[in-house]
Amino acid sequence: MNEELRARLLTWMEEDRRLRSGPVDADAWLAFDSASTVFLREVVAAHGWPTRSLVGEQGATAAWLLARHSPDLSGQREVLALLCALPPGEVSPAHTTFLHDRICIREGRGQRYGTQVQPDGTPFPLEPGDVDERRAAVGLEPLSLYLRHLEH
Questions:
Q1: Which pLDDT does position 150 carry in this prediction?
Q2: What range does the domain containing 139 cover?
Q3: Which of 2, 33, 61, 110 can pair with 127 through a Cys bridge, CB separation 3.0 to 4.6 Å?
Q4: Does residue 77 belong to any structural domain of this protein?
Q5: Is residue 55 part of a domain?
Q6: Do 97 and 142 reside in the same domain of the chain?
Q7: In the predicted model, what is the mean pLDDT of residues 2-20?
Q8: pLDDT for 56-111, tens place per residue?
Q9: What is the pTM assigned to this prediction?
Q10: Beta carbons of 7 and 13 less than 8 angstroms apart
Q11: How far is CA 99 from CA 2, 22, 42, 49, 84, in A?
Q12: Are the CB atoms for 91 and 100 separated by under 8 Å?
């Protein structure tokens, strides 16, 4: 495991969470997200996608969080392709599903898994079909339970 890279990713994730735990500051979020996107591109260019075996579970989660918050839609699409190409076990299926849905919402399409929720607590529009069946196939709980957890 690359401990140095893991530590750097965790530092970025901590700052992301600190920034988002306070009042909404869209300018600060955009500045941070733009800088973290540059950092993540450099990481991927040097090491490939930060997988579980490279940076551990927390490091992989940190990389995914930075990608998820990136303002670069084409970069998010590239990350999704990287995640989908990895061997099973190297990335959490939840990371792939959340990023997929985020991209769908940004593109104005229905989301597949119902992971993206509007400020009023309702999911953004969904693709036709059985969302709970799609969620179960990737190891996610039924949508109604997910939404209940978000209420608390």
A1: 87
A2: 92-152
A3: 110
A4: no
A5: yes
A6: yes
A7: 97
A8: 999 999 999 999 999 999 999 999 999 999 998 999 999 999 999 999 999 999 99
A9: 0.91
A10: no
A11: 24, 23, 20, 14, 11
A12: no
> Same domain, yes or no, for 65 and 120?
no
- Token pair 């109604």 is found at 144
Both tokens of 55, joined, read 């940076």
Overall domain count for the chain: 2
26-47 and 3-21 helices cross at what angle (nearest 10)?
A: 170
DSSP-derived 3-state class of residue 32 = helix
CA distance 136 to 142: 7
The full DSSP string for 40-93 is HHHHHHHHSS--HHHHHHHHHHHHHHHHHT-S-HHHHHHHHHHHHHSPTTSS-H
Residue 55 shares a structural domain with residue 99: no
Q: Which of 72, 100, 116 is the last residue of a domain?
A: 72
C-alpha distances out from residue 147 to 9, 62, 116, 136, Å:
29, 23, 10, 15
What integer pLDDT is reported at residue 152 of this predicted model?
65
- Burial class of residue 113, CB neighbours in 10 A (0-12, 13-18, 19+): buried
Q: In angstroms, rounded to a whole number, what is the distance separating the alpha carbons of residues 101 and 87?
A: 21
- Residue 86 in any domain: the answer is no
Q: What does the alpha-carbon distance between residue 16 and residue 62 come to, in Å, rounded to a whole number?
A: 9
